[in-house]
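Hey all, sorry for the wall of text incoming. These are the two entities for the joint prediction.
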Amino acid sequence: MYRTLNGNLSLQSITSNESSYAVKTADKIRYVETGMKHKSLYCFIAFYKFSVTVCQMREIHASEVTKAVRKLCIDANYYLSDDIKENLQKAYNEEKWNIARDILGKILENADIARNENMPMCQDTGMTCVFVELGQEVHIVGGTLGEAINEGVRLGYEDGFLRKSVVRDPLNRVNTGDNTPAVINYEIVSGDKFKITVSPKGFGSENMSKIKMLKPSDGVEGVKNFVIQVVKEAGPNPCPPIIVGVGIGGTFEKAASIAKKSLLRPINERNSDPFYRELEEELLEKINSLGIGPQGFGGRTTALAVNIETYPTHIAGLPVAVNISCHATRHKEIEL
Amino acid sequence: MEKRITTPLTKEKIRELKAGDSVLITGTIYTARDAAHKRLIELLDKGEELPIEAADSIIYYVGPTPAKEGQAIGSAGPTTSYRMDAYSPRLIERGVRGMIGKGLRNAEVIESIKKNTGVYFAAIGGAAALIGKSVVKSEIVAYEDLGAEAIRKLEVVDFPAIVVIDCEGNNLYEIGQKEYLDSLK
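and here's what came out:
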């Protein structure tokens, strides 16, 4: 039995092997003594192997996470990402409706002012959505990950002169004063990667988001109709031109979660599946034919992109979530 | 071509404004959003005085970011107006003439605008750094405990806005979109 022991054997399996050994020998008293000795030895070996494994894990100090989140909060709010800026510029060049073109020009000017003067592009510096990809070989030391992230938010919003927009309780609305807590999504991935994305989400657009549990028989037409209906009803409220994040499949909360996650994808990247790429393009065309235009004053540029993400779903369901985001769609990420 | 208007915003000035006009506002405006509106209405319910001079005033729906040194205000773009719909008619009846925000208003607000010769302006949502530049002075006049939602008295110079709903009830959100779609036919 000693020889069969390897690193994959758990203490529980050792114990059950010993039980069968004990029955075979029938010398129970002697077994107990031997077993106890073996058990101590096995415990020692297991602990040693565990220690070796832990030592081989990549360690990241909680303070590094805090520092990174602090900077990501500030950078995301000050510096509009290149994909959105390029897309706004393209829309400005192609927009033929005068007032729409003027608005797009002002939005671009605003992004430049924010970048050059290091100030938030929008006063709604959002509820801080944080996406963590945590490699299973990473060990966070010196504090808990959640607290490290919230401390980063606290510092970022204070040092960056960002607005504190979070209330402690949804009904007894008292501001927490530091924009915490963040909404944190954890994903455990293989290896020793640690990626963190900060996406401050404004509520002008968040409030216009919707979810619907469609029937399988509603099919792709049902999905298209729902997305268009949500954008139409939102009209000028979510600060068009918008980015439309769509989550199809999963469960009720999974659809919403992947819709939000889709907004992290650069808007010049289409879904890798040709079927959904075409659906994204078709929906964008339909949305930009509605006539809502920038800020809702009319024009072609109602949306800059439609990003769809999907997930397997139940035989009885077709959940669809539409998470609308404004032209100041912000996200910054870093790998530690 | 922008129309320049100054506060106080009298009925005579409002009658000159048409949906679709670009305006530059100079003078004094008050900030108030969700929580401050709730408190203002509670004061009215109790029959108490408002902490703002409501007559011929403009309320801007904004919760600005904190000012850095040397700034009067941080970024200060409009918030979505429909959340104030439940409160606006009461304030309009008390003399508030203009509202600055973004997005749709409900039928009661539009009716109140028509009845009381008011006006609804939109500022560009998300152009907060740009808009903040037109604010030269900012002073908290009520509800400091609300932080970003406190009522501020702002001095603005050439604050850029667009007339969305004029005193006749013409609505740029409807007219603008219709005209654009008609232009494609």
